[in-house]
């Protein structure tokens, strides 16, 4: 994945839809989505996000998303279930001039799979981030992952996107990338904390 | 999926066969099947259903299916395990003039996979609805899903069919579609109920 | 359990709280609660139900509960988390003159365990219906069940209450009880449907 | 699958190897293997079976296999891990003149996957029966299933083979096929027993 | 447990009820029940068994039970859900003059727990065999086990009853006991088969 | 539980020990521990916390704990595994004059169970908070919970402590308590966010 | 637990019986048993071990046990299933003059539960180490744990015994105890390795 | 797989990264990695291993790896996340003149998937060993396995590599291979121990 050719599309991360998610913990799903946004901000990947009927039961976009991604562009829809059916949304993607799409959303089998399959058919290279997405059952997201993968879409998880964007520790902003790993993976955070204290203890 | 080209095939949703299903709750399987039928009725998708030896141990078709799909056509078989081996069944499909088949049934690896693979070979575009189908073990439906997917059949779940048929909230019958989501996803129903009460409380 | 000495207490079965339940499917929880209400109606067991702040995020009582239990008495609370801290609630229980309490609610470890432990201490015989209750994690309801059981409360499930109320098929309303088993246990419904068809086939 | 073109290959169903199986119950694995053998006998599918060092720790072939398949041909090996590396074994397959291979064995990822991939490469059509096979972990058989499926091998389970061989109830030996379903699927056996009693009760 | 003071009570092992069991495999449940019957026959423990409405949807007693326990006494009921509510049943137990009851049945929380709690209250020493019993959910049997255990009933599994009856290999019928372990525990059967072949190989 | 008689003891929530926890997600464990600290701060419950060899591999106390509980008292130990073996620790507890102890820590079966059993024997009323504790396996914490419960210790989870401290919405600081529920239960947070937006939409 | 009053009893850790264990990984069970033996050796706790028919299918004692516990005493049995039925075994325990018994073995519900219940009745204080024991199913060990716990036996895991024996880091042999934690808990070993390297890196 | 054309690449098996692994037990992961190294040593397959920032929180390479593979070549990196981005690493692979790569590492979706996809694109035949690799969640490694498999990479487990390297028992070093199976599969070790004792017993 080339970060310079990529756009991050965050689709329908809404508090009402979160209530229907059963294939991943809501807390983990929200944390991964925030991590994804911060990764994109750090890597200079444009972010476009959208919501399905945010004034209805689907609920508002999770508030911590906009906090994490101050540069993200919001595109409203006119009722379309698939964001790719919305002209403004596709135009916003085209305006970036990029051809690699990183997608995550709720539900995986609908809000991710529909635009992913359409964009793939339109010539984009598509990555579906499974653990920043959620669905009503594991059976649903397993089927969606296989359906997308067999259509040529890359099934990945947030740590893949982090590492594909990061690529090397030999860069000036390495520390920022390090802290992103800690935010994404709770155990990594503990590892880093233990590491710090061990070094402190060794040298005091 | 184009609803105007689609036919829904419900295969052997019989009360005796339900007793052998171990990869999904029987209550969920039945509810998803009813939802699938209502989606098709709402979207104008013809429904054809069939049973394997309904007077024997396999048992009768679940009664709530016919209630939910008053326009569905029943095609009896002459003992064939695969409905696609039955001439009348194939003719009933051909009579619709449609080339996209949405299939669900019990067992996934037999009553769905056999006709799905045959129809796919005959040039149809086939969707297998995993969570309106059931099998004797998760190993069985996992293997069946992979086998079908690698043959070009689309593995989906009921919420995919609902959303592919619904496609947009910007339509006159949006409210009916909304209630179908509530029927299909129990948590969505609770979300909608909470939403209604919150609005009531805000304006009283 | 003596049905003639029992009261059914349904505590905070609210659509907002349902969203936080992770130890049982929401659909199953709701179906079991409805079944419990119908069992009580059939057995002449008085039902008292209550809600915690139904105008706030906790949401309204699930609507199908009042439908299933037309004779149930609703007692509002004044903010108390434990219904047993509310005087009106305890008085409503005392007014029945009965000393056996069947309790279910959301969350198990709070809305059930608190009043259950208090009532047990006040001399009542208490049954906690685990599968018509829900909690934020399996760890939470496991701990609550052990805590209550070690305090002398009987941990049971809905089928226990159904069978303790039913007690014998040798009664005039046996058919009604039979249909309650079918409503409670989806597989039992399928068994009964298969049975009916087998007999029909044998005699036609 | 055409039963008239098929051979059943049972590979290393040995009591020592069974001890290392963790992705399926040993009892289920043995029962499915016996069912597979009976299906083949009934359908006129030749059976060839083999063992890997049966005098060593791998142990003897499960004794109920030979009972169930009196016409099966045993081919000893000279130490080869993959039966397809053994000339006698391949010759025995060739001698049948058939080009469709149904394979099951222990371990899935070795004793099944190796000859399956080799035979597929040699032009055979191969079915891998996942639930009459076993492996040291679910991760191992999941990987093996995906590896084989992506190479063109059909991943199936025993009920697929039963139904593909059976194909129709409209045949003289229907009753025998019926009893094979009962043997393979314990719940189906209970369904049939219930059915019989319901009819008896209806007509007495 | 003293086998000379024990009676085995097998309660409602009926093919219709089996369809509702979700906390244990039906095949395992049936095999354990048969093993329990054979253990009792071998240890001289009287067996009393009963059914709840065997002409209705609950279905007939599993046929292999009577085969395994030719000396078992059947006591019909008059509609009572708890066998202990049936006078004939209690009299049959009393007629044995024994005071230790080993109970198993479907459902654990009803058909086992009700008579177990009643008999315990009547002064009997009661063992509840969890894995020769079944219930509609794991939550149901977990609750039932805790409820019974806290009332003084011993929660055990079939291997406990086998070993408590067997007690020592230093007896004339040791070989019969050995084969019962193999029947009960499929892996033990494989161990014994491997053992036999290893010895054969060593001495040939 | 009377908050005015309670002390919260947080035992060995150290980043090295977190790496060994397998019965609960590390992220959830840390979030629950922080919630517990905030609950205590809000309810005026004194907090005492301690660490086992924080300069060694066990690692430092999780940093967000001290942030959440600015008034908490730290008591160092002199190598004792059980904090109750440390005189300073017991004196710190005694100095509060309170007799109800709420304990959580890593490992449940050691750092919680040892002091819990000792304090219980010394006459304290003890609550063990299972989901703000962690252990090397589910088997370990299941055994520890049963061991403690049978000794008279109350097994609870964080939502119990929150609700026992909160007790009623009819209090001036109700909003603060409301936000604690949202922090503790991610789904509750989403419910509240949806609720707010629904009301906004209704009145705009 | 007072190590100076304790004896460790290792019961039937035999390679044939291991094949029947399904509630814990065999590798973990063996590693925990070895750890238990080393803990006892380090703490000066006498070890007595025994086997049930080691020349038959049950197989030999796991060889690494004797390596880890050079001072352990082996007591042969005369066919008794329960080691407490064997006079020599009870005498060997009595010869130690100690009254606290730490027991582990295969099967939990038989080889551990039988002598545990007998010794408890004889006035011993008994600890059952669940994760150095194994049984044919989780249902079996869950039932056994509850049965033993309700009889007054302490259900524990290996880390409890390690910590109860260790008790404080403030002792001369602290390093040995540290390495025992690493051996018992694989993640702890990784923590310690990371710690060492972090310190090395800090000071180089 | 042709062992004579193969190289084993072990990627980032570091003690800090191990703490973040949730899709496989750390003990199993380490044991499989050691087994993989020993298999390669025995089969004459060159081993190249590497680490990502071993002086930082990721931690040192697991020490038992170098012990098991004395001939392995270590290649340091200059910060690159993907080893294939490091020129020295690719050169070391090219220096072997072999074109088949067996890869394992932590994380599967990053440290294995990245170089695997790159090497595959560069014309190598790649095997990804799933159970000698680890990732932050099962969802992560499931997605990675599907992504790699659909790109043409072979998903396998350690027993596949062992058997593909071993190929036949009819070789001089058969005993060594036999002991490798025992090391890799704990149950196989028990089977072999039982076998040995059975033969000993038969001939004494």
From TrEMBL, chains A, B, C, D, E, F, G, H:
Q: Which residues form the Isochorismatase-like domain?
A: 7-159
Family matches, as Pfam families: Isochorismatase (PF00857)
UniProt-recorded name of the protein: Isochorismatase family protein
| Source organism of the structure | Devosia ureilytica
Lineage in the entry? Bacteria, Pseudomonadati, Pseudomonadota, Alphaproteobacteria, Hyphomicrobiales
